[in-house]
Fold this protein.
Amino acid sequence: MLSAGRWRALAAPAHIAYAMWTTITQTPIERAQEQASQVEGAVGRIWAAITSGGALEKLIVFTIIWLALYGLSRLIRRGIDAHIDEITRRHQLRKVVSYSFWIALIGAGVVLFAERLALADIGTILGLIAAAVTIALADVVRSLAGWIYINSRRGVEIGSRIQVENLIGDVIDIGLLKTTLLEVGEPLVYAMQSTGRIVTVPNSVFLNKNVVSSATVNPLVWQEIQVLVTFESDWKRAREIIQNVATELYEDIVPDLRAGFKKLESEYAFRLGSTAPIVYTEIADSGVMLTLRNLTPVRKRRATVDQLSTGILDRFAEEPTIEFAYPTYRAFRLGEGEDVLPPPPAG
């Protein structure tokens, strides 16, 4: 006497053969009708799984929580826009509100739908998801790591001017995956001024590329301006004029300079040296080279050069003993100028 399980095992090949024969002998319309009924049955089973055990009620509650959090975040963002005038602070608060919204929404979802899962099961699931994401989205994971790196150290902040490879720009946004810059300098603008173009950089570059930053802690940089006067000029008077013009501009930035360097010393192994402008003298091929070295705000570099150049030109125009030098070339035709040429050496 065969058991029921034995009968089912023996009948299974017959059922498979019957199903194959039915599929072959069916018309296209009959096959389409059967596939539609299978899809309908699958959808019905999925819906039954969703609505069983209070899952539908939880989905409704989750939707209500999402709408409430979204409305609250919108109200907070409007309040920030209306009451905070400082651009950097306003942008940072808006980002905090956006991140808080998503964290709260994910937390609500975990509380509602994961209560039946053991902690070990949740850890296993999260581990598998993390491994899959790491393999499939390696660049995204590196960008997230770059975002953590940027936010865990000073030097790259909203408002910083940075250089990444051949790109220079001011940081206007730091996102989870990319940092947005307002491009500065070439190829559209010769000086260090905004081009008006928005450029995005993956955060992963901050982990494996050299990044030059003019930090918001001390937004001042050193620059040099060279002035060439003739050997016959009163170069000492010229040096004195350049020094006076630079000192006048230096006195305007002293308060910001001291505050910036003091904060820089408190955060880095940095010692404040001489910050006053200084003029160096050098003998060049065509005259006396006077090089001015001075501090200037990084975003006012072109304006500072303009003020210094204008002041030097105006002062030099009042001095008859000072003349600018420039390379001079003289060309002679064969046979011309023999009276001014030295005689050939004897023997």
Q: What stands out?
A: Residues 4-12 have pLDDT under 50 and may be disordered.
